[in-house]
Predict the structure.
Amino acid sequence: MNYNFQFNVVWRNFDVLLEGAWLTLQLGVFAFTAGCLIGLVGAAIRSYGPAPLRWLVNIYVIFITNTPALIQIYFLYFALPEFGIRWSNEACVLIGLTLNAGAYLTMILRAGFLSVRQAEMEAGETMGMSLPQRIRYIVVPHIAKSIYPALANFFIVILVMGTSVGALIGVDELTGQAINLSTVNYRWLEYFTVAALMYVVLTFIASIGLALLGRWAFRVKARIF
Amino acid sequence: MPHLAVNGIHAKYGSLDVLHGISFDVDRGEVVSLVGPSGSGKSTVLRTLVGLTPVTGGGIEVDGTSIDYRSSRSVRAARDRMAIVFQQYNLFQNMSVLGNVTLAPRRVKGRKRQEVEAEAMDLLDLVGMAHKAHAYPDELSGGQQQRVAIARALALRPEILLLDEVTSALDPELVNEVLDAVRRLAAEGMTMLLVSHEMAFVREVSSKVVFMDQGKVIEAAPPAKIFDAPDSERARDFFGKVLRG
C-alpha cells in the first residue's frame, strides 16, 4: 500500500475531535442515567405493578427492543415534525437514545428485581417499610451490586454504538466530527483511526469512572480489565 | 385482658389448610413458646401475626383491640407493636450492621440519625455485637448475624418480640450466644412469643408452652406440667421422643 500518512492534518483539528468526544460522553452519560431511571420504574412496574401498567411496559419494551435505534431517532427527527413537533437534532438523539436505553434497562434491571432475596423483602415489610422504601433500600443496592457488570457493559454500548447514530442527523459528536473533518480534506484513514482510538480512550475513562462509582457507592469490587 | 390474644385463627397456603383454629393468650412480660413437630404450623402463627400470611378465619387482638389484616393501616399498627426475628436472620446484605439496625427507625419512624445510632449501639452492645457495627452481614457468622437480627427487631421498640426458630440454622456452638441474648431480654421483662426446638431452653425461659400438631393446639400449660406430665397422648408421645437421652 502506497499511502502517505499525514497525521499533522488531524492534530491541527484535534480540538474539534475533542469537542466531539466531549459531546459523545455527555450524550452517553445522560442517556444512560435517564435510561436507568426509566428502567427502574419499568422494572418495578413489571415486578410489582397492576396488570394494565404491566402491559403498557411490555408494549414499550417489545416495541423499542425490536426496532433499530436509528429508525426510532429518524422517527423523532423526520416524522414528528409532520405532527407539528419539532426538536433539534441533538434533542432527538438524546430523547431517542434515552427511550431506547430505558427499554433495554427495564429488561436488565428486571433480572435484578427477580434475584432479590424474598426473605429480605419480607423482613423489610414486617419492619413497616412501604414498597417504594423496600425498592429504594433493598432492591436498588442489590441490583447495583449483582448486575453491575451488565449495567456497565450496557453503558459502553450506549456510549460507543448509541451516540454515533447521531452523526446521521448531523449531531457533531465524535463520529460526526470525524466525518465533517474528513470530507474537507479526504483524510478518512487518519481521522477515523484517531477517532477510533479516542473511542477506546473514552470507554477506558468511563470504565474507570464506573468502577470507582461502584466501589464507592455499592461496595462492588469491579475489575476494569 | 391478655396483651396478645390469638382467637381461633385459620390460615392456608394455596388450598392447603395449615392452621385450624389456633387459640392462646400471651400476657404482658410473659414468654410463651410454641413447640411441636415440623409442619405443625408454629411458624405460620408468627407469620400471620405480622401480616405475612393472610388469616382466613378467627381473629387476633392486641390489648383488646382486634387487628384487621385486610386493612393496611391496621396491619401497620400491628407491625408497629410486634417485631419478628427469622430463622435465616434475613439481614439486608448490602448494608452494614449499623445500617440494618437503624434503617427502619430512621426511614419508617422518621427518627433522628444521631439518636437512632446511639440507641442502636446500645442494642448491639446488649447482644454483644457493638464491635461489629461497621461490618457487613457476609463477614459475620450465623450466630453473630442472628444477634444483629435481634438488635434490629428491638430497634423498632416492639411491645412483643416474635422469635421464629432463631437457633435452628446455627452451628451447635453458636446456639448459646443467641440464647444468651434471648435470656437477657426475658430477664428484662420483654414479652416474647417464640417458636423453638431447643426444649431445655424453652423449659427454662417460658412461662407457658403451647404444643401444636397438624395446625391445632393440642395442649397449653406451664413448662413443668407439659414436659413432665402432659394430659394428651400426642404430647406425651412427642415430648417422650424429643426429651429422651
User: Anything to note?
Assistant: Chain A has a mean pLDDT of 90. Chain A touches chain B at residues 117, 119-120, 122-129, 133, 137-138, 141-142, 145, 218-219 (CB under 8 Å). Residues 19-218 of chain A form a domain with the MetI-like fold fold (CATH 1.10.3720.10).
